[in-house]
Design goal:
Helices cover about 5% and strands about 50% of the residues. It is mainly beta. It has 2 domains: about 325 residues, Glycosyl hydrolase domain, family 43 (Tachylectin-2, Chain A, 5 Propeller), CATH 2.115.10.20; about 140 residues, Exo-inulinase, domain 1 (Jelly Rolls). Strand 13 and strand 14 form a beta hairpin. The mean pLDDT is about 95. Bound molecules: beta-D-fructofuranose. Enables the bacterium to metabolize sucrose as a sole carbon source. Keywords: Carbohydrate metabolism, Cytoplasm, Glycosidase, Hydrolase.
């Protein structure tokens, strides 16, 4: 179904309750609803927003269009949790209901100040000629989760030299000042990030552009996030307009980072290495991080991409968030590990130890549709080995190591209902290792695979039939020693 502009910008508050109930019923009848991922009750979820630890809880909001699986009038939807695993539905956080966010409360971030959580976000507006004008807005949440929007925007003008693609403020505190990075497009239609500073969260000063080495790198950088970890500076962002190159940049838009010396605030220079993709899979965009009271840097992303149709669309909903991942730095690279608290989800455990010799094998206890699975291949001389999950006679999702090419390959060409095939059905990345660990979290319609303790990660939505529950191990042209544990979730 084609959505008209009018439909996309109609308000949740103006809908008849019968319409919302019917939509929710359609969503709940979808066979691909997730069981332990954050997903919208109806409509479309996109970027994680306002991720912060405040007043005894992790707070996590997301971009939400309630009325269907398309991008339209965006709200902030609020979830909260004590353990990053069990999430409480805290209802709508921000409604697009004033003249500074009338066409959507777009992405932003949160920080605590004076005992209150300050949410800073982009208010999207359009004039009668549909020309966009973004405002950066502030809303303040108290310890009872009551959110109040400030009357006036905190940044109303786009600085000279930039277009109206100017959004997604990410705020942090350094010494006694607040800083925010904002995703921007220069007038020559190249992407970049600009820096603002503030003493009080309400008056913001334009400092200028971050001076990176990436002067011509796509046409827009969305959702920037700057933080320091282990004495290094990290800038995460989602550039648009990067062309595929070998195994890299295969998705419609990318998400990645540059890492280097700490940002030099005085002249905004950032000495850094090359751009590296965060995730090697299919469905990953617009990540956001926060720091928690234990000093952990935790990242969550949208498990989806703009401008791609998904099989759940016909059931009136689309997308979910990734699981929270803790970030580390090793050898100039970000390492991602599922947060430890996810062990709380573990139920019944099974275990297998086997030597595979040029064969495909399955084991009695090893099957399921929702599980955590950790498989170590400690020794191998096979040319290729791997695991098939959500498998049946006709379907399988494959993660494998090609020891000749030295590549990890994720193949969803037989995963079930196909979609986005024009962007390819496999994803790969180079990895040279003597031992391979596949650690994965499989939900009804997704898989997140952490390779070698988070050195590489592959995230993808999959849409298999509910009877595709087998797990199979295989080795080709040689042998592989496999030790595997599986927990039902
Ligand atoms: C990224 C993005 C952001 C914007 C938001 C709108 O997916 O396009 O740049 O703020 O989504 O929903």
């Amino acid at each position: 179904m084609e959505w008209t502009k009018e439909q996309r910008y109609s308000r949740l508050e103006d809908q008849k309750p019968e319409f919302i109930e019917a939509l929710a019923e359609q969503v709940n009848s979808c066979p691909w609803r997730q069981s332990f991922h954050i997903q919208p009750r109806t409509g479309l979820l996109n970027d994680p927003n306002g991720f912060a630890y405040y007043n005894g809880h992790y707070h996590l909001f997301y971009q939400w269009f309630p009325l269907g699986p398309v991008h339209g009038l965006k709200y902030w939807y609020h979830m909260k949790s004590k353990d990053l695993v069990h999430w409480e539905d805290a209802g709508i956080g921000i409604r697009p209901d004033n003249k500074y966010d009338s066409q959507g409360a777009y992405s932003g971030s949160a920080i605590e100040r004076d005992g209150k959580l300050h949410l800073i976000y982009t208010g999207n507006t359009r004039d009668e000629n549909w020309i966009r004008h973004p405002y950066q807005c502030l809303a303040v949440m108290d310890d009872e989760d009551h959110i109040e929007k400030m009357e006036k925007p905190i940044i109303a003008e786009i600085p000279a030299g930039y277009t109206d693609h100017f959004r997604d403020p990410k705020v942090w505190k350094e010494d006694n000042a607040y800083y925010a990075v904002i995703g921007a497009q220069r007038e020559d239609e190249t992407g970049c990030v600009v820096l603002y500073s503030s003493q009080n969260m309400t008056e913001w000063q334009f400092e200028g552009e971050l001076e990176t080495r990436l002067k011509q790198f796509g046409y827009m950088w969305e959702c920037p996030d700057y933080f320091e970890l282990d004495g290094m500076g990290v800038l995460i962002f989602s550039p648009q307009g990067i062309v595929p190159s070998g195994d890299a940049y295969q998705n419609i838009y990318q998400s990645g980072y540059i890492i280097g010396d700490k940002l030099h605030f005085a002249d905004r220079t950032f000495e850094h290495g090359g751009f590296q993709e965060l995730d090697r899979g299919f469905d990953f965009y617009a990540p956001q991080t926060t720091i928690d009271p234990n000093g952990r840097r935790i990242m969550v992303a949208w498990m989806g991409l703009p401008e791609v149709e998904y099989p759940t669309d016909k059931n009136g909903w689309a997308h979910c968030l990734t699981l929270p991942r803790e970030l580390f730095i090793r050898k100039g690279k970000l390492i991602q590990r599922p947060v430890k608290e996810l062990e709380l989800l573990r139920k019944q455990k099974s275990f297998v130890n086997a030597v595979l010799k040029n064969e495909t094998k399955s084991f009695d206890d090893f099957r399921g549709n929702r599980f955590e699975f950790r498989c170590e291949v400690n020794r191998f001389d096979a040319e290729e080995f791997g695991i098939e999950i959500r498998a049946s006679e006709s379907e399988k999702t494959v993660i494998k190591y090609d020891a000749i090419q030295k590549k990890i390959i994720f193949d969803r060409s037989k995963s079930g209902k196909q979609f986005a095939n024009k962007y390819g059905t496999t994803r790969s990345c180079w990895l040279d290792a003597e031992k391979i660990i596949f650690h994965m979290f499989v939900d009804t319609s997704s898989v997140e695979i952490f390779i070698n303790e988070g050195e590489e990660v592959f995230t993808g939505r999959i849409f298999p039939g509910k009877d595709s529950s087998q797990i199979r191990f295989y080795a080709k042209n040689g042998s592989a020693d496999v030790t595997a544990q599986k927990w039902e979730l």
